[in-house]
Design goal:
This protein is an alpha+beta fold and about 240 residues long. The protein contains eight helices and 13 strands. About 40% of the residues lie in helices and about 25% in strands. The strands form three sheets. A five-stranded antiparallel sheet has the order 1-2-9-4-7. Strands 3-8-5-6 form a four-stranded antiparallel sheet.
């Protein structure tokens, strides 16, 4: 069960820095309005590995990740499919907050996290009251649809190698030194859950990409040595 924080935001050292001002969705709001929204949220600590929302559960609250990392998953017949990660400043649960239907996926905390829980009523009030919030929610919904469409296309048309190349590119970031990395690297089982395959297929494909000099691996990161070649693999006819 989620642990309820003992103090409201701003009432003591433990909570004073917890604010929705860190969430891009509310970045354009005046400080006093953000503070008012802070006071209408329940702030929770969630341990890594704890489930925040169950698949098909009732409930319409929306959750904002203040710190830590959460993950959207669907578990079917004992097999886990990872849909996406939710990082600091991002949010989840808004589908049910908007349409009042059961949860379309489960949410698990990957690391120890602090999460703000907001009622659907407060979210709807913010959507109606603030143009920037309304625009932000609409853009995020469209982004979710585009991502889902892209993944459906990859699943229908790409082999395992192409799907893994696409996921490596999606997960990568460019460091200050100009390296393109995936860090920390997912386990092979996590990669498999992301691209709907088996761990053994991921192991075989990563090893082949490393032999070809396209990636290099260490416990801390997967380096995309030749990100352009990964994109050429995606563009090639199969």
């Amino acid at each position: 069960m989620l642990e309820t924080a003992q103090k409201a935001p701003g009432s003591g050292t433990r909570m004073e820095n917890r604010t929705l001002g860190k969430v891009p969705l509310f970045a354009a709001l005046p400080p006093e309005d953000i503070h008012a929204l802070d006071s209408r949220c329940l702030w929770r600590r969630v341990g890594g590995g704890e489930w925040v929302i169950d698949y098909q559960a009732e409930g319409a609250d929306v959750y904002f990740v203040f710190s830590g990392l959460a993950r959207v998953v669907i578990v079917s017949s004992g097999r886990e499919m990872i849909l996406r990660d939710i990082r600091e400043g991002e949010y989840f649960g808004h589908y049910s907050a908007i349409d009042a239907k059961p949860r379309s996926a489960a949410i698990v905390a990957v690391t120890d996290s602090v999460i703000a829980r907001m009622s659907a009523t407060v979210l709807w009030d913010s959507i109606h009251r603030y143009d920037s919030v309304r625009e932000g929610v609409l853009k995020d919904l469209v982004s979710d649809i585009r991502t889902a469409n892209q993944r459906a296309h990859e699943q229908a048309n790409f082999d395992v190698k192409k799907r893994l190349c696409a996921e490596l590119i999606r997960l990568s970031r460019t460091t200050g030194e100009g390296r393109v990395v995936v860090s920390p690297p997912p386990t092979h089982a996590e990669f498999a859950a992301r691209i709907s395959t088996h761990r053994e297929a991921v192991t075989k494909t990563l090893s082949a990409l490393e032999r070809e000099g396209i990636i290099s691996r260490s416990p801390a990161a997967i380096v995309l040595v030749d990100a352009a070649q990964l994109r050429r693999i995606l563009a090639a006819d199969t």
